[in-house]
Design goal:
alpha/beta; 308 residues; ten-stranded mixed β-sheet; Rossmann fold
Length: 308
């Protein structure tokens, strides 16, 4: 009987996001494919160091240990062929990551296979791949490495999302960009405060991890000693009166977040330094730059904020 991924949270991760491949990439860029292939074979048993997405992926997979049936599936999407990609799988095994499925495409676009695996997110260190995926309407993000991030040993997974252009679409962002003064934007959002916003590129990912979190909350009610391993935060530049529409939308989606920061233009790095996310998703590099100095971050190159 065929294995069904339709009832699971599926994340597609490129080797460039999961591990630090900076040395390998330099060989490829400077010396070409033949030297790269030889280098990967020579280093086949040398374990790769964790990359930007490693803390997120490790904790997503750890969720499977909390129940009888695995609810999370992570699939390696690689532009290598199986020969040069073998080092990555040996590193996966060394780090004890429960990843058994892979897509190798030998230099082509791996993200085109996302729908075949029901993937709700594609993470990559390749900007061009991510941009091309977003242009196809696929949920993808470019990982940005922190300058100084030391992962802890705790199982808790903390994810932070910007709202507009990430969870919701960019329709309100477009109004904000066109407005001659901030009052026009506030008037629009107040008028539509009771209107649900359209879904953005990472809506499906949020919805699916929220469903897993709901099961965690049920366990907490049944067993007071049990603590949920997932925390979700929204961190947005919106403030009152524009914040009401975020609440309206989350209610319509039947999604409850643990923490919400409506910052009204205050730098996001301050609150995120205390929240300590294992991944922060935002559609604007200007917001990510300071956060990514300390925490793993993902740029979602979607919408009007990325067309200037």
């Amino acid at each position: 009987m065929a294995f069904n991924l339709n009832n699971k949270l599926v994340v597609a991760v490129a080797s460039s996001a999961l591990f630090d491949l900076s040395d390998s990439d330099r060989i490829f860029q400077e010396k070409g494919e033949d030297s790269y292939r030889e280098y990967q074979r020579e280093k086949e048993d040398d374990i790769l160091f964790p990359g930007v997405a490693f803390p997120l992926i490790k904790r997503l997979l750890n969720i499977n240990s909390l129940g009888e049936d695995p609810v999370v599936e992570v699939i390696l999407f690689s532009k290598n062929d199986p020969d040069t990609g073998l080092r990555v799988f040996k590193s996966i095994q060394h780090h004890e990551l429960a990843i058994s499925r892979a897509v190798f495409v030998t230099g082509r676009d791996p993200f085109k296979y996302m729908s075949a695996f029901n993937a709700s997110l594609f993470l990559s260190g390749n900007k061009d791949d991510v941009k091309a995926a977003i242009e196809r309407g696929l949920p993808a993000g470019h990982v940005v490495a922190p300058l100084a991030f030391k992962d802890d040993d705790h199982d808790e997974l903390r994810i932070a999302f910007d709202f507009d252009g990430v969870l919701a679409d960019d329709s309100s962002e477009a109004i904000y960009k066109k407005a001659k003064e901030i009052g026009e934007y506030y008037a629009h959002e107040t008028e539509h405060a009771k209107d649900e916003m359209p879904e953005g590129p990472l809506f499906k990912f949020l919805k699916e991890i929220s469903l897993i979190q709901n099961d965690e909350r049920k366990k907490e009610k049944e067993d007071p000693a049990y603590q949920s391993k997932i925390r979700i935060a929204v961190c947005t530049a919106r403030n009152a009166p524009a914040l009401e529409r975020v609440v309206t939308t989350l209610r319509a989606w039947d999604i409850r977040v643990d923490e919400a920061f409506f910052l009204g233009g205050i730098e996001k790095s301050g609150v995120l330094e205390l929240y300590e996310p294992h991944m922060f998703f935002d559609d604007q590099m200007g917001h990510i730059e300071n956060v990514s100095e300390k925490f793993p971050s993902v740029h979602i190159p979607y919408g009007v904020a990325n067309k200037e």
